[in-house]
């Protein structure tokens, strides 16, 4: 382990103890009773297109694989929660991906299954790809009990979407669709520090997000994960910092 990694570990953990890695045969149980008000995260790994910059666990959507995954997920919830006798209080439930809105038809079923074991006190969130922002999907999410949606916009500007290999977003259509169904939080994700991006580009994107119906934004610096196939290179740290001034 390098000196820098060791020093960072000591700084972050405030401890001289090295990390220890224990073998996991897949049967290790999370001691849920020991965690006060945890948050639940459910991963839905399906996407219609796979983006070359994306580090998350994902596969192409296939209807048969998708139904088998949701069935297996319910079994997994039973296994993980087997020792819970009275519903355990959890802060929130978040469906990430992948593009979990592709499972809109069965999210209600998964939520009801989780509610046998957990009492969710602070809302339910779902990530959406812009292609999934349509009235039918939003109404299904709302009916399932979703209170927060988070849309992966990345940028509203064609130039930066082209760099990421993503399609242009019809802002007026998105605004119309978002006004059709009410959620406590409508968040939009942006990737910043793309090649050639300036602070004014980011400001314009954030302004458009609020004009379009968002009441929250999340901004992620572009990371070139070494295991992805993106040809894009990260901006230097001082340039990134300058963008946020
Ligand atoms: C699972 S994805 C979002 C949901 C949906 N699948 C989509 O693409 O719109 C979560 C977010 O991670 C961010 N992200 C993905 N790859 C990234 C990267 N290489 N660097 C920085 N942020 C990234 C994007 O903002 C993306 O919206
Ligand atoms: S960015 Fe979103 S749509 Fe693209 S591969 Fe990742 S999870 Fe799928």
What labels describe this entry?
single chain; 245 residues; alpha/beta; pyruvate-formate lyase- activating enzyme; six-stranded parallel beta sheet; two-stranded parallel sheet; 8 helices; 10 strands; 36% helix; binds S-adenosylmethionine; binds iron/sulfur cluster
Briefly summarize what is shown.
By secondary structure, this protein is an alpha/beta fold.
Give me the secondary-structure topology:
Elements: H1 3-13, E1 40-44, E2 46-47, E3 59-60, H2 63-80, E4 88-90, E5 93-97, H3 104-115, E6 118-120, E7 124-128, H4 135-144, E8 148-154, H5 158-164, H6 171-178, E9 185-192, H7 199-211, E10 216-221, H8 237-244
Helix pairs in contact: 2-3, 3-4
Iron/sulfur cluster binds next to loops.
Descriptive notes:
The structure is a single chain. With 245 residues, the protein is of the alpha/beta class. The protein has one domain (33-244): tm_1862 like domain (pyruvate-formate lyase- activating enzyme, Alpha-Beta Horseshoe), CATH 3.80.30. 36% of the residues lie in helices and 19% in strands. It is built from 8 helices and 10 strands. It has helices at residues 3-13, 63-80, 104-115, 135-144, 158-164, 171-178, 199-211, 237-244, and strands spanning 40-44, 46-47, 59-60, 88-90, 93-97, 118-120, 124-128, 148-154, 185-192, 216-221. The strands form 3 sheets. The protein has a 6-stranded parallel sheet with strand order 1-5-7-8-9-10, covered by helices on one side. α2 (63-80) packs parallel to α3 (104-115) and α3 runs parallel beside α4. The two termini are 34 Å apart. The mean pLDDT is 92. Iron/sulfur cluster (SF4) binds next to loops.
